[in-house]
Amino acid sequence: MSDDHHRVSPEGRALGDQMVRLVEPVIQHIAKLGDPDERCKSCAFRAGTVPNGCLQTQADALKAALEQKPFLCHVDHYADGRHKLCSGWLASQWGAIDRPVVACPWEFSPPDDVSTEDAERAAAQKGGA
Predict the structure, then answer these.
(1) N or C, which end of the chain is more exposed by having fewer CB within 10 Å?
(2) 56: which residues sit within 8 A by CB, 6+ positions away?
(3) % of the chain surpassing 70 pLDDT
(4) The whole model's pTM is what?
(5) What pLDDT shows up at residue 95?
(6) Dihedrals φ, ψ of 10, to 5°?
(7) What band does 96 get if pLDDT is binned at 50, 70 and 90?
């Protein structure tokens, strides 16, 4: 991981390490069953990535995991442009039906700057198109 990236921090790396510790056994178990690791190369739940060391991203990932709310992949999209669910987040939900939802006392962070294409798609969807 590049330590000089402006979003990477010691706190983000520490939380990211714990998120990996949570999902890696699940990823390995699923791989033993014959399903590949489908996390993107820069997954927040993959050790050493920038998102794995970004405190803001890790706070969002932790909140989504504990509150059992969808966490979307920033890389993988469906053909219609919608983001796919993060494969790392899906691994964090393994067995979640047996766990109570934990409400976190912080809000999700606001989205980063939206591209023109994303803004147009969101406007079209909002308008019912």
Answers:
(1) C
(2) 7, 12, 109
(3) 84
(4) 0.79
(5) 76
(6) -60, -40
(7) confident
Q: Is 1 exposed, middle or buried (0-12, 13-18, 19+ CB in 10 A)?
A: middle
Who's near 66: CB < 8 A, 6+ residues apart? Answer: 101, 102, 103, 104
Exposure pattern of 97-112 as b/e (b: 16+ CB <10 Å)? eeeeeeeeeeeeeeee
**Which residues neighbour 33 within 8 Å (Cβ) at sequence distance 6 or greater?**
none
- pLDDT tens, position by position, 50-81: 999 999 999 999 999 999 999 999 899 999 99
Place of tokens 């912080």: 106
- CA-based diameter of the chain, in Å? 45
Residue 115 has pLDDT above 60, yes or no: no
Tokens for 84, please give them. 């796919």
